[in-house]
Design goal:
single chain; 129 residues; alpha+beta; Cyclic Phosphodiesterase, Chain: A; 4-stranded antiparallel beta sheet; 22% helix; 40% strand; globular; RNA 2',3'-cyclic 3'-phosphodiesterase activity; hydrolase; RNA_CPDase; 2',3'-cyclic-nucleotide 3'-phosphodiesterase activity; Cyclic_Pdiesterase
Length: 129
């Protein structure tokens, strides 16, 4: 939803406190498009349907982060599922769209482990419905 830069302990505590006030009712996304993102060299699925609720959540989280002077990545939010990294060129193939129900959101930490990126969930907030 929002890619954060370095966060100190005080900012993290306040970020978690403010995230508790968000009223997210869940969302359903249909990942129906195969995309190649050249700069990060990834092949991913993206969604062209169901973006309103997750875009609103992303905007709320962005406002909270900026209000706490947390550096964020300013690229526009694009819901996606990464399929392959370090790919050289686009792939054209048929696939069945995937529908995914977002039943909450979380704060995750990106950790590099032997050159592989992993995400560790620090806290979760379930949707209200």
């Amino acid at each position: 939803m929002v890619f954060l830069g370095t966060v100190n302990h005080k900012q993290e505590r306040e970020l978690r406190r403010r995230a508790n006030t968000i009223k997210f009712h869940g969302a359903e996304l249909t990942f129906d498009r195969l995309d190649f993102w050249q700069k990060p060299s990834i092949l991913c699925l993206t969604s062209t349907d169901g973006l309103t609720a997750v875009s609103e959540l992303s905007e709320q989280l962005t406002r909270i982060s900026k209000g706490l002077d947390i550096p964020i990545d300013n690229r526009p939010f694009t819901p996606h599922i990464t399929l392959c990294r370090k790919i050289k060129r686009p792939l054209d193939t048929e696939f069945e769209p995937i529908t995914w129900r977002a039943t909450g959101f979380c704060l995750a930490e990106s950790v590099s482990n032997s050159g592989r990126r992993q995400y560790r969930v620090l806290e979760e907030w379930p949707s209200l419905s």
